[in-house]
Design brief:
alpha/beta, Aminopeptidase, Alpha-Beta Plaits, 2 domains, eight-stranded mixed beta sheet, six-stranded mixed beta sheet, 17 helices, 16 strands, globular, binds 2-acetamido-2-deoxy-beta-D-glucopyranose, hydrolase, Peptidase_M20, Pept_M20_carboxypep
Length: 593
């Protein structure tokens, strides 16, 4: 996942779900009940109590109305025997050894992508992906003899496992081949060398062991295992693996998306499952949080141009001085984060409030009331925002990440610029952020006597050609603006979400020999970064960033992603294979996707 942080794949919570419709229909009933209760239970004498009653009645009614309905574990029926038999195989020591070989071998082929890479064909560093393809060919012989492989833009891998019923929309399992580079300065900090793929009896070590070779090799391992049992799909399964996800996917996923659109058309895919959220323990229960949205993105370049000159006769403010004031203005006015009921994170808390075992009583009550009370919603926000990671999931963020200006100690800087990185809230837009930033700097532009152009629009009131001390220009720094992703439907009638939920529960249970229906809670989730799916919106509304990764206890979140000592437990990896296998078989039987 693209996201330069260790918190990157943290609990990966949540999303807003249409599954939670406001209970308007019950409001009339509710009012009647309130009045009735007042008359029945009270009488005139206890009127003082009636203020409490509406709340009580609300609570009673709420108990019957789930805001986070859970689907049952879903296991294949038509291919039930095959699934059971594979389930048994996945639990054996010999399969574990096979899984270690598959993933360890993939880690041993470095596939780093660098921020400054040129196009395929020009930049020779891409050639590192050819040996990775050779590796896949050798490691997954059945996949390569059965599926149809197209190499898109040389290194993008598009495998099609043709189903017998062409009228069924395919499912797409996505992932990426590239890994973030290992910082040479930190190599000595690795317990086992970053490209060793070392297996210590419990964990497989190395760059990519989690992000995202566990997803890519996990899905390939599932297909290879299914092929070994002679399974032939009814519904087409597509595997789409980009090779520059960590640097925005313009060479890989962007071209894969075009190829897929050409093959299946707009909305021609049933569902897409890409890297993203996993499951973790929260409030005494285990909760899976498939990502159903993604924040948007905008890098704003703030540039000041001023007349140059010798610095022995300086103006009161140089371009650098003015730029500094603008940046201080930014930091003095951060975006306000506001939790709304449309927020994926809100849905996650609804699910926790309803299903998690150890949610404190007060918090549980606040969550329940937040559905209809603005005050409770604000209280909940206050509670949630105590965690800065959660706060950043909800609001638009800003960070001044680059700065440049001046060429010589005795010359006035003719240009000074900075780049402010924004991650845009799910309920906002690129346009809103542009408007916000333009407005923010207006006062200072005037004070400094600058002509002001923001995103191609003249902002300053200055008459054309009027004298000024220079100019201020805001622009999309790299042309990489990205709207927040469309929110994936999660309602009761959203078949893909229900299928995924049931699959998560079945995979979790079968891996542990459990049989309950709520051993794991499934909730809409909000991932903290962007994935290759940014290019896949036209293929389907049903996009999930989820790879069934066991993130364990809160204190033990995904270790080493984008930093030193990346490693995955082999048990976790085998469970990922179970998940993909169950997903493929369930999707194969689903008639309503
Ligand atoms: C699946 O296999 C595991 C062992 O790996 C076992 O505990 C579990 O009972 C099996 N589940 C089913 C449904 O067969
Ligand atoms: C703006 O700058 C120009 C050029 O230096 C100057 O002529 C003009 O008087 C300034 N206007 C104000 C309001 O400071």
């Amino acid at each position: 996942m693209e996201q330069p942080l260790s918190e990157k794949k943290s609990a990966g919570p949540l999303l807003p779900s249409p599954l939670v419709q406001h209970p308007k229909r019950t409001s009339a009933l509710r009012s009647s009940l309130r009045i009735l209760s007042v008359f029945l239970l009270c009488g005139y004498a206890c009127m003082t109590l009636t203020a409490q009653l509406p709340l009580l009645v609300d609570d009673l009614l709420d108990k019957h109305e789930s805001r986070c309905p859970q689907s049952d574990p879903l296991v294949p029926e038509r291919n039930g025997a095959l699934w059971k038999s594979l389930n048994a195989t996945f639990g054996t020591e010999s399969f574990k050894a096979q899984a270690v070989d598959w993933l360890g071998g993939a880690v041993r082929v470095p596939t780093e992508s660098f921020d400054d890479m040129g196009p395929v064909g020009e930049d020779r560093r891409w050639e590192a992906f050819a040996p990775f393809h050779d590796y896949l060919l050798a490691a997954f012989p059945l996949v390569h003899s059965t599926l149809q492989l197209t190499k898109v833009n040389t290194y993008g891998l598009l495998y099609v496992w043709q189903g017998s019923d062409a009228s069924l929309k395919p499912i797409v399992l996505a992932g990426h081949q590239d890994v973030v580079p290992v910082n040479p300065m930190t190599v000595y900090e690795w317990i086992h060398p970053p490209y060793s793929g070392h297996y210590d009896g419990r964990k497989i070590w190395g760059r990519g062991s989690l992000d995202d070779k566990s997803g890519l090799i996990g899905s390939l391992s599932s297909v290879e295992s299914l092929l070994a049992r002679g399974f032939a799909p009814t519904r087409t399964v597509v595997l789409a693996y980009g090779f520059d996800e960590e640097i925005s996917g313009t060479e890989g996923a962007q071209n894969l998306a075009a190829a897929l659109l050409g093959m299946y058309g707009k909305d021609g895919v049933a569902m897409i499952v890409d890297e993203g959220g996993g499951f973790a323990e929260e409030y005494g229960s285990v909760i899976a949080t498939p990502g159903i949205a993604e924040k948007g993105y905008l890098d704003v370049k703030v540039e000041i141009t001023t007349p140059g000159g010798h610095s022995s006769v300086p103006p009161k403010h140089t371009g650098i001085g003015m730029l500094s004031a603008l940046l201080v203005e930014y930091e003095g006015h951060p975006y306000k984060a506001k939790l709304t009921r449309q927020d994926p994170l809100y849905s996650t808390f609804l699910c926790l409030g309803e299903h998690a075992k150890e949610v404190p009583k007060d918090l549980r009550a606040t969550i329940r009331r937040s559905w209809s009370s603005k005050k409770a919603l604000r209280q909940l926000q206050e509670e949630i925002f105590k965690n800065p990671v959660y706060k950043s999931f909800v609001g638009t963020t800003q960070a001044v990440d680059l700065i440049q200006g001046g060429v010589k100690a005795n010359a006035l800087p003719e240009k000074a610029s900075a780049v402010v990185n924004h991650r845009i809230a799910v309920i906002s837009s690129v346009e809103e952020v542009k408007a916000h930033d333009s407005e923010l700097l207006k006062g200072l532009a005037e004070r400094f006597n600058l002509t002001y152009n923001a995103f191609g629009t003249k902002v300053s009131k200055k008459a054309e050609g009027a004298p000024s001390s220079g100019s201020l220009t805001l622009s999309d720094a790299f042309g990489t603006a990205l709207q927040p992703a469309p929110v994936t439907p999660t309602g009761k009638d959203a078949a893909p979400y229900q299928l995924l939920s049931g699959t998560i529960k079945a995979s979790y249970n079968s891996h542990r020999g459990l049989t309950g229906t709520n051993e794991i809670i499934v909730s809409p989730g909000m991932p903290s970064g962007n994935t290759d799916t940014r290019y896949y919106w036209d293929l389907t509304r049903h996009i999930f960033r989820y790879n069934h990764h066991n993130a364990g206890k809160k204190t033990n979140r995904l270790s080493g992603v984008h930093t030193v000592n990346e490693a995955i437990e082999v048990d976790t990896f085998v469970e990922i294979i179970r998940f993909f296998t169950t997903l493929i078989l369930n999707a194969d039987e689903a008639t309503t996707l």
